[in-house]
Amino acid sequence: MSEDANLMEKIVSLCKRRGFVFPSSEIYGGFAAVYDFGPLGVELENNIKQAWWKTMVHDREDVVGLDSAIFMLPKVWEASGHVSGFSDPLTECKKCHSRHRVDHMLEAVGVFADEKMNQEEVQKIFDENLDKLECPKCKAKDFTPVRKFNLLVQSNLGNFTGDWTKEPVYLRGETCQGIYVNYKNVLDSMHVKVPFGIAQIGKAFRNEITARQFIFRTREFEQMEMQYFVHPDDAMKYYDQWKERRMQFYVDLGIKPENLQWHKHENLVFYAKEAYDIEYNYPFGWKELEGVHARGDYDLTQHAEHSKQKLEYMDQEKNEKYVPHVVETSAGVARTLLAVLCEAYNEEEVEGDTRVVLKLHPKLAPYKIAVLPLSKKDELIEPAREILLGLKKIYNVDFDITQSIGKRYRRQDEIGTPYCITVDFDSLEDKAVTVRDRDTMKQERIAISDLETYFAEKLS
Ligand code: ATP
């Protein structure tokens, strides 16, 4: 990762300029805390999700996938505790009327307020530290009383009464509730045995009070979650295993270990056995990338109680019945994407010029290869397109005929394409092309007939 103080600004600008991330509804002035992923952003997102799905589901024999609906019966959110307790402490600046998360304001002056505290407790700490606090926007020091603000987003789905606020339906605040309510279905329909996991990737929605730092904290976002159901006695053994695997996942995406750390939750909610977050060293500080939590039997017990269904597991071999404990791994797609971009962003001096290069892991790069005919003449375009069509069967390949070859190389560097193929007039004679490596900028001549084998080796 570059040490640049303006790194965040540069990444935001690159994301817009090169089609990774756009502000939502931008032609109307933008919609706060919602972003759209552009043509290259969606490729990068998909590659991250594919890497996650591969390690969490396809590489394993004990984890199955799920795609549950965004909408669920409101009772699910009552049982999970979200309707009563899924809230953040909010205050409003009386001068500029901007709203802020009290725990974040306190954190900025080194005071800790945890999510377990009730409104009165947070108010007390807030009052005790008032002299140190100021509005992050206008610097005024006059605030409304603290109130707990529920983060669940409501909708009128299926409600035709005209007053949907009385019986709101919620957009899911996290994907894992869909996993808990399908635990029994999976158990009954698949030949899974404890320990086993259910994994899911999907959208979640939260009315975040302050949504800053680009795509780090948004009101609509995507999660990659896995709940691993275990015998109560084995919970901590599996918890430690999952902690190790989840940290390795980010290293395997090309993130340097020194930019990752564990953060232990000191004040656990009553049912949790242990909770750690994986943090990444973002340009705005160490922040949560993923949570790995040992949740006990809380979630299944709550849903069993509220639904009046038995959610126990019967171990036929041991003739033992129990409610499994859950080890949860919960990551954000956009937070991973941002971490990967921060890690990959590099500026290098090349012949008196600055080269911006995204040194993305090849498995994450939106395009693996770009085919660049040296001239727009048909005699080069035709063989270049033939190469493109051959490689496109295997990889996502870009084809670019605009501007000088130097500018085209720079563009591919900026979007992280690992290899560029230049088709020149010599190619017509020697049936070979120049392949340029993004990171070393070294070029080598490769026979067209060898390209598939060459890239199979390089990109495997
Ligand atoms: P934070 O403390 O940063 O608000 P959290 O502890 O509420 O996060 P979890 O509920 O544990 O987050 O959600 C699991 C993961 O989902 C997080 O580690 C993060 O990667 C992602 N996530 C949560 N909220 C958001 C959001 N508003 N925008 C983007 N990603 C999010």
Automatic annotation (TrEMBL):
What is the enzyme's class at the highest EC level?
ligase
- What are the Aminoacyl-transfer RNA synthetases class-II family profile domain coordinates in residue numbering? 9-366
Q: Where in the cell is it found?
A: Cytoplasm
Cross-referenced InterPro entries: aa-tRNA-synt_IIb (IPR002314), aa-tRNA-synth_II (IPR006195), aa-tRNA-synth_II/BPL/LPL (IPR045864), Anticodon-bd (IPR004154), Anticodon-bd_dom_sf (IPR036621), Gly-tRNA_synthase/POLG2 (IPR027031), Gly_tRNA_ligase_bac (IPR022961), GlyRS-like_core (IPR033731)
Kindly name one Pfam family recorded for this protein. HGTP_anticodon
* Binding, substrate: 101, 174, 221-225, 328-332
One GO CC annotation: microvesicle
What top-level branch of life does the organism fall under? Bacteria
Family statement: Belongs to the class-II aminoacyl-tRNA synthetase family.
Q: Indicate what this protein is called per its UniProt record.
A: Glycine--tRNA ligase
